[in-house]
Amino acid sequence: MAAIKSPLTDAALKVTGDALQGALVDLIDLSLLAKQAHWNLTGRNFKVVHEHLDEVVTLARGGQDDVAERAVAIGVNPDGRARTVADRTAIQQLEAGYLDDDKVVAAVTDILAQIIGRFRERIAATDEPDQVTQDLLIGITAELEKQHWMFQAQT
Amino acid sequence: MAAIKSPLTDAALKVTGDALQGALVDLIDLSLLAKQAHWNLTGRNFKVVHEHLDEVVTLARGGQDDVAERAVAIGVNPDGRARTVADRTAIQQLEAGYLDDDKVVAAVTDILAQIIGRFRERIAATDEPDQVTQDLLIGITAELEKQHWMFQAQT
Amino acid sequence: MAAIKSPLTDAALKVTGDALQGALVDLIDLSLLAKQAHWNLTGRNFKVVHEHLDEVVTLARGGQDDVAERAVAIGVNPDGRARTVADRTAIQQLEAGYLDDDKVVAAVTDILAQIIGRFRERIAATDEPDQVTQDLLIGITAELEKQHWMFQAQT
Amino acid sequence: MAAIKSPLTDAALKVTGDALQGALVDLIDLSLLAKQAHWNLTGRNFKVVHEHLDEVVTLARGGQDDVAERAVAIGVNPDGRARTVADRTAIQQLEAGYLDDDKVVAAVTDILAQIIGRFRERIAATDEPDQVTQDLLIGITAELEKQHWMFQAQT
Amino acid sequence: MAAIKSPLTDAALKVTGDALQGALVDLIDLSLLAKQAHWNLTGRNFKVVHEHLDEVVTLARGGQDDVAERAVAIGVNPDGRARTVADRTAIQQLEAGYLDDDKVVAAVTDILAQIIGRFRERIAATDEPDQVTQDLLIGITAELEKQHWMFQAQT
Amino acid sequence: MAAIKSPLTDAALKVTGDALQGALVDLIDLSLLAKQAHWNLTGRNFKVVHEHLDEVVTLARGGQDDVAERAVAIGVNPDGRARTVADRTAIQQLEAGYLDDDKVVAAVTDILAQIIGRFRERIAATDEPDQVTQDLLIGITAELEKQHWMFQAQT
Amino acid sequence: MAAIKSPLTDAALKVTGDALQGALVDLIDLSLLAKQAHWNLTGRNFKVVHEHLDEVVTLARGGQDDVAERAVAIGVNPDGRARTVADRTAIQQLEAGYLDDDKVVAAVTDILAQIIGRFRERIAATDEPDQVTQDLLIGITAELEKQHWMFQAQT
Amino acid sequence: MAAIKSPLTDAALKVTGDALQGALVDLIDLSLLAKQAHWNLTGRNFKVVHEHLDEVVTLARGGQDDVAERAVAIGVNPDGRARTVADRTAIQQLEAGYLDDDKVVAAVTDILAQIIGRFRERIAATDEPDQVTQDLLIGITAELEKQHWMFQAQT
Amino acid sequence: MAAIKSPLTDAALKVTGDALQGALVDLIDLSLLAKQAHWNLTGRNFKVVHEHLDEVVTLARGGQDDVAERAVAIGVNPDGRARTVADRTAIQQLEAGYLDDDKVVAAVTDILAQIIGRFRERIAATDEPDQVTQDLLIGITAELEKQHWMFQAQT
Amino acid sequence: MAAIKSPLTDAALKVTGDALQGALVDLIDLSLLAKQAHWNLTGRNFKVVHEHLDEVVTLARGGQDDVAERAVAIGVNPDGRARTVADRTAIQQLEAGYLDDDKVVAAVTDILAQIIGRFRERIAATDEPDQVTQDLLIGITAELEKQHWMFQAQT
Amino acid sequence: MAAIKSPLTDAALKVTGDALQGALVDLIDLSLLAKQAHWNLTGRNFKVVHEHLDEVVTLARGGQDDVAERAVAIGVNPDGRARTVADRTAIQQLEAGYLDDDKVVAAVTDILAQIIGRFRERIAATDEPDQVTQDLLIGITAELEKQHWMFQAQT
Amino acid sequence: MAAIKSPLTDAALKVTGDALQGALVDLIDLSLLAKQAHWNLTGRNFKVVHEHLDEVVTLARGGQDDVAERAVAIGVNPDGRARTVADRTAIQQLEAGYLDDDKVVAAVTDILAQIIGRFRERIAATDEPDQVTQDLLIGITAELEKQHWMFQAQT
Question: Could you list the residue range(s) of the whole structural domain that residue H15 is in?
Answer without folding.
Answer: 10-152
